[in-house]
Amino acid sequence: MISAKDFIPSKYTHSVEEGNFQWSAPSNIALVKYWGKKDNQIPANPSVSFTLNNCKTITKLAFAKKDISTALNVTSNSFSFDLLFEGQPKEDFKPKIQKFLERIEIYLPFLAAYHFTIDTQNTFPHSSGIASSASGMAALAMNLMSLEKALNPEMTDDYFFQKASFLARLGSGSACRSVKGSVVVWGNHANIEGSSDLFGIEFPNAIHDNFKNFQDTILLVDKGEKQVSSTLGHDLMYNHPFAERRFAQAHENLDQLISIFENGNLEEFIKIVESEALTLHAMMMTSMPYFILMKPNTLQIINAIWKFRTETKIPVCFTLDAGANVHVLYPENVAVTVLQFIKNELVGYCQNGQYICDEIGNGALLN
Ligand code: DP6
């Protein structure tokens, strides 16, 4: 089994003075949710997600070796980087990046030897309530791996992507599912070969055509700052009265999804996905302190989807992440009808009528 130690590199064979890379990495939407973690970003239960295609972060990483006199003084944590968001310096993002670099330095020992300029932008509107930490951390991890590959060109592609996901996880857990593949599993699961708590893997078994080009229309219900961050929410799963049962349930749901992905049973798919979304929010409502991230319009949308599904028998469902926005999931062959339904009946519940059409994608790309 692969352990974290396997990602500590031996001596690099090449030296690189300066250069730049640019990677884009997508967001992802979990079907079985990651909610609760142990030390070092180890998930309390396995999760699985669809990789998105349009919602992504594009990050350019420029790097230049520090001069020798500074380099000699290099000690751990003495990272030097500038951070730009949409071309403008963004000081308030820096502490998160600083912490990320500290966490991953043991795996990328070259970090303190360079000055970095990290220039990042999202394709989705700023403060849309769409988490940019998954796509953002994944895009940064890809760039850092490109630099490590330049220092060690012998590196295999498998190692490259696995370590990129491993590093992204240390930035934000769900980010490890934004690296490679369209259906990604993160976390040990007895019946999924190669699954690991340390990184995401492409779902290795058969996937029915019903899930090819699956659509995700994201309804922006509330774009405000969340009252409770995901990181805090995860912590509240410690000593949560239902935690152990919930973690076991995630294993069971993933087990069921293995057959559902293979046989294409959308009715069963919907049951698991909607139950997971509501369970996630049930965990929030039953932690101490308790909190609610759904808004009245979140519930209006859920009810409208249920009514539409009952009346039309069209296999459309919802999922939620840690916020009020609703992800509407449906197969490509019903896209025209569902989009019309969204425009007619759901857009009124969105803040400023805003929604984003996305679909399943393939992971990070070198631009
Ligand atoms: C509800 O990955 O944002 O979206 O590891 O603390 O950065 P950190 O948390 P994060 O949590 C995501 C939670 C979720 C469910 C999921 O994506 O699986």
UniProtKB/TrEMBL annotation:
<dbReference type="GO" id="GO:0008299">
    <property type="term" value="P:isoprenoid biosynthetic process"/>
</dbReference>
<dbReference type="InterPro" id="IPR036554">
    <property type="entry name" value="GHMP_kinase_C_sf"/>
</dbReference>
<dbReference type="InterPro" id="IPR041431">
    <property type="entry name" value="Mvd1_C"/>
</dbReference>
<keyword id="KW-0443">Lipid metabolism</keyword>
<dbReference type="GO" id="GO:0005524">
    <property type="term" value="F:ATP binding"/>
</dbReference>
<feature type="domain" description="Mvd1 C-terminal">
    <location>
        <begin position="218"/>
        <end position="346"/>
    </location>
</feature>
<dbReference type="InterPro" id="IPR020568">
    <property type="entry name" value="Ribosomal_Su5_D2-typ_SF"/>
</dbReference>
<protein>
    <submittedName>
        <fullName>Diphosphomevalonate decarboxylase</fullName>
    </submittedName>
</protein>
<keyword id="KW-0456">Lyase</keyword>
<dbReference type="InterPro" id="IPR014721">
    <property type="entry name" value="Ribsml_uS5_D2-typ_fold_subgr"/>
</dbReference>
<dbReference type="Pfam" id="PF22700">
    <property type="entry name" value="MVD-like_N"/>
</dbReference>
<keyword id="KW-0444">Lipid biosynthesis</keyword>
<feature type="domain" description="Diphosphomevalonate decarboxylase-like N-terminal">
    <location>
        <begin position="25"/>
        <end position="191"/>
    </location>
</feature>
<dbReference type="InterPro" id="IPR053859">
    <property type="entry name" value="MVD-like_N"/>
</dbReference>
<dbReference type="GO" id="GO:0016831">
    <property type="term" value="F:carboxy-lyase activity"/>
</dbReference>
<keyword id="KW-0067">ATP-binding</keyword>
<keyword id="KW-0547">Nucleotide-binding</keyword>
<dbReference type="Pfam" id="PF18376">
    <property type="entry name" value="MDD_C"/>
</dbReference>
<dbReference type="InterPro" id="IPR005935">
    <property type="entry name" value="Mev_decarb"/>
</dbReference>
